[in-house]
Specification:
By secondary structure, the protein is α+β, with helices and mostly antiparallel strands. The protein contains two helices and four strands; from the N terminus they run αββββα. The chain has a domain of 36 residues. Helix content is 48%, strand content 15%.
Length: 79
Amino acid sequence: MKFVLLVIAVLVLLWLLRGTLSRVRGSRTDAPSVGSPTAMLRCAQCGMHLPRDIALPGRGGVFCDAAHRAAYEQTHPES
């Protein structure tokens, strides 16, 4: 009787480990791939850092959106 209980306990343990390992393997493959680093620029109006790809160039620097660019250019007229 002890042997049967031991075999059942080992089978349950193996079944639980199999489920855990499949979840760990699945989460590793779902991780996003890491690409090359992107340069971060600072908005001249609010100071928020944003990727160079989405920064809007303007007079006086780069901006996070068109409203900040317009506000900055309005408060800093050309000399």
